[in-house]
Every structure is written in C-alpha cells, then in structure tokens.
Amino acid sequence: MRVVDLFAGCGGLSLGFQNAGFDVVAAFENWNMAADCYAQNFRHPMYQCDLADTSTAIENIRPLLPEAIIGGPPCQDFSHAGKRVEASKAGLTGVFAEIVTVLRPKYFVMENVDRAQKSAAYGVARRLFSAAGYGLTEVVLDASFFGVPQRRKRFFCIGAIGQRDGFLEESISRLKAPKAMTVRDYLGNTLDTEFYYRHPRNYSRRAIFSIDEPAPTIRGVNRPIPAGYPGHPNDACAVNEHTRPLTTSERASLQTFPANFRWIGSKTDKEQMIGNAVPVKLAEAVASALALYVEYDKQKYTGKLTLAVQEAPVWSLLNA
User: Rounded to two decimals, what is the model's pTM?
Assistant: First the structure.
C-alpha cells in the first residue's frame, strides 16, 4: 500500500510503517533540520514545505496516489509540557484533516499527544473525517505496552472509508503486551548505570528513574543535573556520583530508533527531533494492526481467506 507521511519530522512514524511492510513513497516536513535528517535515512523523497498552504500541498500529494496518509501534526499547543492554549500549531490538525478529506485515501492514521483528543481543533477534524465517510478508531496508547520502554501516551485516530467506528480497536488491543516494558527489558545491561536523571518540568516532579521501570516520556530537552537539585521523595535513588542524564543516542534508543539511524545537526536539534518523534515500535504496532485489517479486507473481497488472516486478531472482530 502506497503511504505518504505528513508532518513527518525525522521519520519515526514512517520507519514504523515501513517496518510493518507499507510502501512509504514520500514525506513532507517544514522544519529544515528534521527534513534533512529524514532524507539521510530513507530512500524515498522528502519534500520540505509548509503544509498549511493546503492548495499547494494537495497539488503536490495528489500525483503520488497515496492509498494511506499518515502523520503527526505539531502538538506543542496540546502538550502537557506546553502552554496548553490552542493556537496556530493546533490549527495544523485541521490542515491534516483537510488534506485527507480532499484526497480521500482509503485509510489514514493521525498521531498526537493524548490531550489532543479533547481539543477543539480535533473536534473540527473529527467532523470533517466523519462527513467524508471515514469510520474512526480513536485510541490513546501507552507506548510501554507496545514494544517501547517508555510511558509515553499518544492519541491515534485511524480512519477507513466505509467502515464502522472502532473498526480497529480489538486488533490493536490484542497487540498490547501483558506488562509494561522497562528500560532493562529493552536495553539489557548495556547502560553503565542503574539510575539516570531526566530533567523535570518543575521540582514538584521526580527526576531520578530506575532502569527497572519504563522511562518517562522522552522530551525535546536533555539537561545535566543542576547543582541545586533538591531531590524528590519519589526519586528512585538519591543523586550520587553514578547518577547521570541519558546521552542523546540512549534517548534515541528509548524512542526505539535503530542504532544505525543517522542523526544530524546540533545536539539541541537532535534532542528536539528525538523528543518530537513517534516511537518507532509504537508506530510499527499500529501499522501492523492496520496491515492485518487491510489484508483481511483484500482477501475477503477475493473470497480467499488464508489461515494466517483467519487466525489474526482482526478476524474475530470483523466477524462479530
């Protein structure tokens, strides 16, 4: 299936879909550094442009004949770490919806922070999707139950033309692991520390974590331990000579990027790209659920259902 990635960043969502067998044919991103990083890691074209110019964007995307459009519109105005005031960037959710509903690919996947689901901007987008004939699966997923050693909650809206709302919920839920993945589960004993520092938004929050728990959300900042850090009752240990922040490459690993992924730009740029990215394994889980559904839909149309599809999670859902 031909896929186009909008607001692609450095490529976490693209890589997850690619790993699940989708044919990502192009990506679009406005931030030059992220676009350049993406281009270093994928063979298909990356177009640096402002998607808010929807007429031009649609003209550029239409010839690519996407069967699915995926993307994560910038979420700063929805983020727990942001000001939580909807503004221009929140409007890019509407831009994504406009592009999708004009081009009408058979499927779409939109990702954002969990609180975006309750935003006015998403409410507008949702009405556009429904009016265009898309059945919607709307889920908030904790990445630590989908192959990512990180308690990162993200909202996904997955649409399919002509399907009922909730069409993919059971398939996704069956891919959920029985327990959260810890840092040690994913990285083993490759770190030289049992405890690490993650700079809190304010000192009312803990900052020291153990590798025997999922990491907190990887954000776009990575700071050293300040000399005056007061400690917190919920810290995994007191600060000592072995406690340190994670490196940029370690943070990329917790976002489940492969070790051979090429990062470019300054340290600040790299940290921002890593923090903004969709975790690769979370994207891959969502893509895998959709891939099973697509294969089922195709085989059902031809009347030839393979045993693999009959045993897949979507089978019981679609025949309920």
Answer: 0.90
